[in-house]
Specification:
Multidrug-efflux Transporter 1 Regulator Bmrr, Chain A; eight-stranded antiparallel sheet; 274 residues; Multidrug-efflux Transporter Regulator, Chain: A, Domain 2
Length: 274
Amino acid sequence: MLGIGDFAQLTGLSAKALRLYDKQGLLKPAAVDPWSNYRRYSAGQLESAIRLKALRAADIGLAEVERALLGRREAAEVLEEHRARLAEQRQRQDAALEAATALLDGDARGWEIQERQAGAQHWVGVALPVADGTDEEVTDEQANAAFGALWEALAAMDNAPIGPFWSSMRAGSTEDDVELLCCWPVARAVPADWGIPEWTVVRGEVRAGPELAVGWRHDDGVAVIDSAVHPAVVALLAEAERRGVDLDLAAMRQIGRLDETGDAIGIEVAIPLT
């Protein structure tokens, strides 16, 4: 029998780790002295311990380690799943490195910011909670479901959308709350008591007046940092602030650009000058 120190030296697992694995049932000692509580391991446990060490060295979580130690088939499944996760993580890391390189080393792109006259426009939207003090975000599937449900409900009341969809952000009920508004422009205002079951409906009107706008295509190859605003919006906000606009993100509209088949090919962002 081997003491915990000798067993740790032979396996590369620390004594602290061996005590943890004992507590979690991953690697129980062959014997425990009832008086001293000293753990003793058998030579026959060395192979299992070294397998456990190999799995942990590959950054496989304890829950998956437990499954991998059940048998060859389970081990193969765990390793393949972990390999797939690492490949996906590496893809995200490579994309982030490319974006960082382009952002830090590349020349700043000049964005064409246009000033134009916006017409008054009724709109109806669905409010989705984006953040409530957590890091959770609205998924594309959730946003698409909101746009779809709203379109169908408006069409059913003979007030179908008359232009491309757009979205905006607004503050929620507390300082940490943020909501995404998924909106459609409509020909007429909807009644104040009109709504859609299970959705929070909001309504309003785009005021007529001058606005600044900038646009881009999804396939233009511009480096975008995950979860950060698009560089074109950075340029738009800087120009609006230069003109003395009191920036209000709730007034900024992110409008979908569609091709002739209705597929989204880009984005246009507009912010009022007044």
